[in-house]
Amino acid sequence: MTNLCKVLGLIFFLPLIFSSCKKERHDLEFSVDLLNANDLIKEIIEEIQMNYADDITREKLEIGAINGMLQVLDEHSLYIPNEEFNAYNQTTRGMFLGVGIEIKQIAEGLEIQSVIDDSPAANVGIRPMDIITQIDNKSVLKMSPKKIASRLGSDSALKVKLSLLRNKNETFEVNVQKSVIQLRSVKTEFVNDIAIIKINYFNDDTLNSVSQAIKKINKKKPAGVIIDLRNNPGGILEQAVGVADLFLSNKKIVELKSRNIEESKVIFSDDIDLLNNLPMVVLINSNTASGAELLASALGENKRAVLIGEKTYGKGSMQTVIPIPGRGAIKLTTAYFISPNGNAISHKGVVPDVEIKQEQSLLSQDSATLRAMDLLHGLTALTTETKTPPSP
Fold first, then answer.
1. Residues near 273 by beta carbon (within 8 Å), at least 6 away in sequence
2. Mean pLDDT throughout 334-350?
3. By percentage, how much of the chain surpasses pLDDT 90?
């Protein structure tokens, strides 16, 4: 039995363990159907290897079959080959060699989901939503996931040529020099009397980094704070929840909804807002996803922050990485995010309070940031007037 058949057997046979004796005949028929399905898959793989116009390995076919099975579930569940799994573990630890992009396979090629600040990709002008069509003059549609990971990562030459498509009609090429990327999930700056916390993604160090940023902010006592979640693809769920907890006092952060009782729960913040209700704005756009959407909805729906920007991506779900010893892992959707007001984030996204379309600009002070600053100054002035007693 192939490894694929073992996977299929695990999925379909487990429910039989808990079946009633009254269903014995039905279960026997089901088992026969499963064996027939396994034989069909084996037969198709053999036919492809014998008759397909090009040579193709059995491993590639098996991986394709596994990914096809997972894609039936949703677009976020997938198989991670062993090489990519090692890279995934390095990423969560905060350092890797590469060009600095997160990609997703689509019909046209590799769509760029996010670009790491100050990475080689960012330095040559690559943006989210660009599509890689060729790597070193070879179509990505003819490359295996293993080969793509190798070309973009540490297993090949330090320089890579990328052919890209932008806005469906603009094509261009860039030569990217790979480098060791120290993942910096949080960047803090002060623009006059406004503090800006840019959260690029949620890794092992995000909560600690935001906590340190809050200490600096409390010392400088700015007029307000901007949390920039634009182009944040998410990351480690516990880190996103922990960051939300820093700014909320006795509020509902999120509900995790799953058919697994252990995964289903409602998460509340503790009773301390470390910024003591300092005025706050959160910037979001169409590439704000997953844990970043969780954070935005928690702060927005609890009236802790004003949301400015675009409706978010709509990936309101949790993926659990389940290792397969020696064979990589599967990334499986195990729960969905329900916002504090009971809204499902998945496929719907988070709607801003103030809508501003994102500009194609590399400047930090774009129209959304400037609007956020104006709003914070207004909120600060209003708060000061409210607290100041009328003159006699």
1. 246, 247, 248, 249, 304
2. 95
3. 47
- 21 to 13, 16, 18, 28, 166: CA distances (angstroms): 15, 10, 9, 11, 59
Structural domains of the chain sorted by starting position, each given as residue range(s) with its CATH number in brackets: 3-12+23-71 (no CATH), 95-182 (2.30.42.10), 186-386 (3.90.226.10)
Grade residue 285 by pLDDT with cuts at 50, 70 and 90: very high
Which single residue is written with the structure tokens 């697994």? 260
Q: What is the mean pLDDT of the chain?
A: 83
Query: If 0-12 CB within 10 Å is exposed, 13-18 middle and 19+ buried, where does residue 68 land?
Result: exposed
Q: What does the block give as tokens for 146?
A: 């293993």
Structure tokens at 7: 């996977």
Predicted confidence band at 223 (pLDDT cuts at 50, 70, 90)? Answer: very high
Which segments within the chain are labelled E, that is strand? 78-80, 95-98, 101-106, 109-115, 131-135, 138-139, 159-166, 170-177, 179-182, 186-191, 194-199, 224-228, 252-257, 265-268, 280-284, 306-309, 317-324, 328-338, 354-355
The pTM of the full predicted model, rounded to 2 decimals, is: 0.71
The DSSP code for 320 is E
- CA-to-CA dists, residue 162 to 66, 133, 137, 139, 157, angstroms: 28, 8, 8, 10, 13
* β-strand partners of 115: 101
Tokens of 144: 């295996």
Between the alpha carbon of residue 45 and those of residues 58, 60, 72, the distances in Å are 7, 10, 19
252 touches 268 (CB < 8 A): yes
State pLDDT tens for residues 356-387.
987 644 344 678 888 899 999 887 766 655 55
